[in-house]
Amino acid sequence: MTADIDHTGAGTPPGATDRPTGPWHDTTLTPEARADALIAAMTLQEKTAQLFGVWVGASDEGGEVAPFQHDMEEAVDLDALLPHGLGQLTRPFGTAPVDPAVGALSLARTQERITGANRFGIPALAHEECLAGFATWGATAYPVPLSWGATFHPELVREMAAAIGRDLRSVGVHQGLAPVLDVVRDARWGRVEETIGEDPYLVGTVAAAYVRGLESAGVVATLKHFAGYSASRAGRNLAPVGMGGRERADIILPPFEMAVRESGVRSVMHAYTDTDGIPSAADGPLLTGLLRDVWGFEGTVVADYFGIAFLKTLHGVAASYGEAAAAALGAGVDVELPTVKTFGRPLADALAEGLVPEALVDRAVRRVLVQKAQLGLLDAEWSPVPPALAEAGSADPEALRGTVRLDTAGNRALARRVAEEAVVLLRNDGTLPLAADPPAEAPARIALIGPNADTPTAVLGCYSFPVHVGGRHPGTPLGIALPTLREALAAEFPHSEIVTAPGAELDGPATGGFGEALELARGADLVIAALGDRAGLFGRGTSGEGCDAEDLELPGVQQQLLDALLDTGTPVVVTLLAGRPYALGRAADEAAAVVQAFFPGEEGTRAVASVLSGRTAPSGRLPVSVPRHPGSQPSTYLAARLGHASEVSRVDPTPAFGFGHGLTYTTFAWSDLVVEHEQAPTDGEFALSCTVRNTGGREGTEVVQVYLHDPVASVVQPVQRLIGYVRLDLRPAEAARVRMTVPAELASFTGREGHRIVEPGALELRLGASSTDTRLTARVTLTGPVRRADHTRRLHMGVTTEHLTDSP
Q1: Sign of CA dihedral 713, 717, 722, 723
Q2: How far, in Å, CA of 488 to CA of 496, rounded?
Q3: How remote is the C-alpha of 591 from its chain's centroid?
Q4: With 0-12 CB in 10 A as exposed, 13-18 as middle and 19+ as buried, what is 606?
Q5: Before 150, cis peptide (omega within 30)?
Q6: CA-based, 20 to 30 A from 193: which of 202, 286, 532, 543?
């Protein structure tokens, strides 16, 4: 490291003694007061410089970062920019493979250059992707968000996010671009793997937990994509959104509202799409009127990459980049990412011409500087040396190489827990669990057939580093251990002979490999079919950004292979490593078992193997419905009556496995429903309780899901929707008494006048093991007048659980 940086963090940046000092350095003042004082001392160009980032890549030799030349943008001249300051550094670790310690050194040296070049010594805020872990070389690859949803376990997701945040902060990163709060509306959309599920309440609770975890580590979380990106027509990426205001208000927006109100989130990213002709990046009523004026959000709104320029190039609502900058800034976008385009010279020209009032710049830069003050970046004693380098005590790149571990044993154990709780057992005829020991009970010969049988990256999503970036660097090692399903099964079933054949390419048309695969299947005691997806970017995979599907048939000839395996007569256990749900044809009824894992991360194959053997009890539940027919899309369980099967359409959207479904290796009995108050006013609440008992011979997890059915309403409602859930881990014969307090506000919806209301009338509170498996029903009634419900309404049930004695 250069002599200007002290490894203990007490160094003095070059030129610091010549800089103006002021209240912005005073840590006893509020971040707002410090930001206001700094703004008063800044020139207009210094203020606008805080409103954009530059896309960079860290040096694997430890030198300063270099601007990343993206094919959508021209080169950036850092020497011309830095004297005025710089708002953000985009993905210094996530652009090219770099040793984490050397990357941290590169970032520190760059921060030293940035602070030395501008007269106030303001560092840049560095951000990275962290959708399924810190997206850098050598960092833990956790399960994708769809797996988070499958856990129905927000606290575990919070714990995972805190670990991700600690890794980010340790090397000098301040902001993470996650979580995704888009509610799945069409599973053909390529980015389904990045979502948490098809229900807004599940999405909101899990996403808010992730935010709390990331923010607890001192990292700014970023909600995305605000709002409606997932509701594009035909599930096409970046396509227009044609939903109405009620769908937006009742399906798309609630997760964002929950996170803003409850999680402490400090950043929001606008969506690419337009809704009814209004692009999100230029939607003032959304980005300012709702987000800030109604919900009270005080953080920064950042652009999705190139999203402001898209107002000109894709949406056609701006004639120039200056007009695009004016529209976005006026709507409430504070920071242009990933690199300077519209907020540079075009914004400066628009300001000079009087097209943009300086007050809009002051509004945005105040939010940016408040955040930098919160992060300690305005402190006089701030040092560019991150904690990982301060502990290393060296400035020699070669001495540092390999000293920072971002895939620790603790991380892997946590990734394993998330993966295990996310595995969903969809079907089981009693074949599972497979005995692994003693040898006499284990399957003598297992035929592992399918394109995902021996593929290390089959467990990774599109935004994992080996897939997202590593594919452009084929000579670079993966950086993490990725045991294949074959390797995991061999370790889990050491007394079984495992024979393997791919059968077919994952998305290829050829069936020439069927012969070998079927021969192995006929000679085996059990077939495990390893099917699913390959993550990729913009068409390089079958799942991921830009990898939208025409229908939900398994990619390539996998369905034909699966059908042929079923025809052999050997029991077939289907294992799916995928980024979206797929129709499974005959297998939904004929397979011995079906196990679904949504890109479960680096520990994913071990998690699947442990569920197959029964060493881990399956506890995952579907965050998205699994269709019975590949062409019956778009379809989610949140459908009104006309969205369900009927005699007037030949298209049947009834799922093979509904939202919330998931089997276990034990059984549960639900009983003793008590409704304390069958009537409540529209500003009141209901109280009910029930008992859930493990009646089987194994430990297991039941997820009590509470659905609301409103039989008569002033506007059309979904037949049912999730309003609460609770996980219960129960030993054999153990029971729990679950008491729920249900506020009337949970029955609210957007009425005919466009306001959220609570209406009087009869309701059903359905307590179920899934959306298709109701166990108990409480019939209750709301009384009194129609009542307006606003952003202060209660969003959750109250839940308490009491574990009872182990005997019935």
Answers
A1: negative
A2: 12
A3: 31
A4: buried
A5: no
A6: 286
Alpha carbons 337 and 269: distance in angstroms, whole number: 10
The Cα 26–Cα 695 span in angstroms is 63
Alpha-carbon span 61 to 550, nearest angstrom = 45
CA–chain centroid gap for 101, Å, is 27
Query: Would you say 472 and 595 are in contact if contact means Cβ atoms under 8 Å apart?
Result: no
pLDDT exceeds 80 at position 184: yes
Backbone angles phi and psi of 724, in degrees to 5: 180, 160
Question: What number of other Cβ atoms are within 10 A of residue 441's Cβ?
Answer: 10
Q: What is the pLDDT of residue 439?
A: 74
Amino acid at 208: A
The predicted structure's pLDDT at residue 805? 72
| Token pair 């040092």 in the structure block, residue | 383
Question: Looking at residue 131, what DSSP letter applies?
Answer: B
Q: Let me know the angle formed at the C-alpha of 189 by 183 and 190, rounded to the nearest 5 degrees.
A: 110
> By C-alpha distance, which of 618, 585, 700 is closest to 434?
618
Where does residue 181 fall: left (phi above 0), alpha (psi -120 to 50 degrees), or beta otherwise? alpha
Runs of H (alpha helix) within 245-383: 245-247, 254-262, 284, 310-313, 321-331, 345-352, 358-374
Structural contact between residues 757 and 751, judged by C-beta atoms closer than 8 angstroms: yes
For 530-537, what is the mean pLDDT?
Answer: 96
Query: Contact, 701 vs 729, CB < 8 A?
Result: yes
Which DSSP symbol is given to 584? Answer: -
Summarised one tens digit per residue, pLDDT across range 438-452 is 777 878 999 999 999
Distance of CA 489 to the CA centre of its chain: 28
Cα 452 from Cα 578, distance rounded (Å): 10
586-645 residue pLDDT tens: 999 999 999 999 999 999 999 999 999 999 999 999 999 999 999 988 889 999 998 888
Q: State how far the Cα of 667 lies from the Cα of 223, in Å rounded to an integer.
A: 38
Give 541-584 pLDDT, tens digit per residue: 999 999 999 999 999 999 999 999 999 999 999 999 999 999 99
Phi and psi at residue 445, to the nearest 5°: -140, 120
pLDDT of 19 reads 80
Length of the chain: 808
Structural tokens at position 110: 């760059």
Report the distance separating Cα 33 and Cα 24, nearest Å. Answer: 8
Q: Is the pLDDT of residue 680 over 80?
A: yes
Beta bridge partners of 730: 700
User: Which pairing describes strands 175-176 and 125-128: parallel, antiparallel, or unpaired?
Assistant: parallel
- Rounded distance between C-alpha atoms, residue 258 and residue 426, angstroms: 30
Does 338 sit behind a cis peptide bond, omega within 30 degrees of 0 on the bond before it? yes
Q: By the 8 A CB rule, do 136 and 170 touch?
A: no
The model scores a pTM over 0.90: yes
Asked if residue 18 has pLDDT above 80, the reply is no
Amino acid at residue number 16: A
- 24 neighbors 37 (Cβ within 8 angstroms): yes
Predicted confidence at residue 12, as pLDDT, reads: 45
Longest dimension (CA), the chain: 84
Read off φ and ψ for residue 341, nearest 5 degrees: -145, -65
pLDDT digits (tens, 9 = 90+) for 226-274: 999 999 999 999 899 989 999 999 999 999 999 999 999 999 999 999 9
Which residues partner with 224 through β-bridges? 180
In the numeric block, which tokens belong to residue 270? 């606008």
As a whole number of Å, the CA-based R_g of the chain is: 27
| Residue 675 CB burial class (10 angstroms; 0-12, 13-18, ≥19) | middle
Which residues have a Cβ under 8 Å from the Cβ of 411 and sit 6 or more positions away?
Answer: 140, 163, 167
**Residue 603 contacts residue 133 (beta carbons within 8 Å):** no
